[in-house]
Specification:
It contains seven helices and ten strands. Strand 1 and strand 2 form a beta hairpin. The protein binds copper (II) ion (CU).
């Protein structure tokens, strides 16, 4: 993994060096796309793994209610929860409690020895039928609207990321970026039995987030644009869920579930598999790293076979006569960082 990364850095360094020393104009004429990609990387700086903000995109101590939301649908859902459902529930509960107390105090045997024989009151019956109907309709309108918005397909040009649930890790494939694949395992916890063989321990990198939620390779995506997530599984049913992004969708073998992910701002957002999937179900967290577009592009180029979407893959650019240092992407290799035998049971 280290060797592979060094080789990639060296290759990219050579390329940039070659461009600056060997005449940028000539190089740009020969391979405008490769030049544009390098220029983008130089402008954005090298990719650096993002350090999560404490309390953002993760559960907090003594938290009540929903996690703070970082997607438009999440904001909408949070408004339904905090602005519609909770007030209605609170008011109804208080009214029912008040009625019960009133009946108990006023109409018990001591204070009301001769009960009324009234058995019908049309006016009251109409009221207590109509009011609940109106309340339910009032809840249904925003709720069905939210449901419809959640099913809205992604725009045609949206970036596609394929998410696959496996026992017990996630793989993220980037078909629009050269087809490379990232394997994502939970970090082992210091002083506790090894969960994933060959994976480093939590805390060995300054950018590590909360225990049980941090992974070796995160799902990196651009912020501020719709992303088409296609979700499936390779073995049993899993569920891809990130509470702070208002996202939960089942990962079913042999089937692709699709939903739009839109993250309002850069950050690291954590979730967990949410479908009981076997012995290590609790040890396959999800870490989503949302970056500004230029930083995302820089990350893509750190991946073997990575190509910026909408531009030809490095292999094609090389075929067009780019400098020899252009990385070849004959086979979009699965992540070199993948641990060798990490599916082995915990020690
Ligand atoms: Cu699972």
């Amino acid at each position: 993994m280290i060797l592979g990364e060094d080789a990639r850095t060296l290759r990219r360094g050579l390329k940039v060096f070659g461009l600056s020393m060997g005449g940028p104009v000539l190089a740009a004429l020969a391979a405008p796309q490769a030049f544009a990609q390098d220029a983008a990387v130089v402008a954005a700086g090298a990719y650096e793994r993002m350090k999560p903000t404490p309390g953002k995109g993760m559960p907090v101590d003594d938290g009540l209610g929903l996690q703070a939301q970082y997607s438009p649908l999440g904001d909408y859902a949070q408004w339904i929860h905090d602005g519609v459902l909770m007030p209605i529930i609170t008011v109804i509960t208080l009214i029912v409690l008040g009625l019960l107390l009133w009946v108990m105090a006023r109409y018990n045997r001591r204070f009301n020895p001769v009960p009324s024989k009234t058995s019908h009151n049309t006016f009251i019956e109409v009221i207590w039928t109509l009011v609940p109907v109106l309340i339910l309709v009032g809840i249904a309108v925003p709720s069905i609207d939210l449901l419809a918005k959640q099913y809205k397909p992604a725009p045609e040009k949206a970036l596609t990321v394929k998410v696959t649930g496996n026992q017990w890790f996630w793989t993220y494939t980037y078909p629009d970026n050269g087809g490379f694949e990232v394997m994502s395992y939970m970090l082992n916890l210091p002083g506790q039995p090894v969960v994933n063989n060959g994976v480093r321990e939590l805390g060995t990198d300054p950018s590590d987030g909360p225990s049980h939620l941090e992974v070796d390779n995160r799902m990196v995506v651009p912020a501020g644009e719709p992303i088409r997530l296609q979700i499936t599984a390779s073995d049993v049913i899993h569920s891809f869920a990130v509470p702070s992004l208002w996202f939960k969708l089942d990962a079913v073998p042999g089937r692709i579930n699709e939903k739009v992910l839109f993250i309002k701002e850069p950050g690291v957002y954590y979730g967990q598999c949410s479908e009981l999937c076997g012995a290590k179900h609790g040890y396959m967290p999800i870490a989503v790293e949302a970056l500004p577009r230029d930083k995302y592009n820089a990350w893509v180029l750190t991946q073997s076979g990575g190509a910026i979407d909408g531009q030809p893959a490095p292999a094609e650019a090389a075929a067009e006569g780019a400098p020899a240092a252009t990385p070849t992407a004959a086979a979009p290799a699965s992540s070199e960082a993948a641990p060798a035998a990490s599916a082995a049971p915990a020690a």
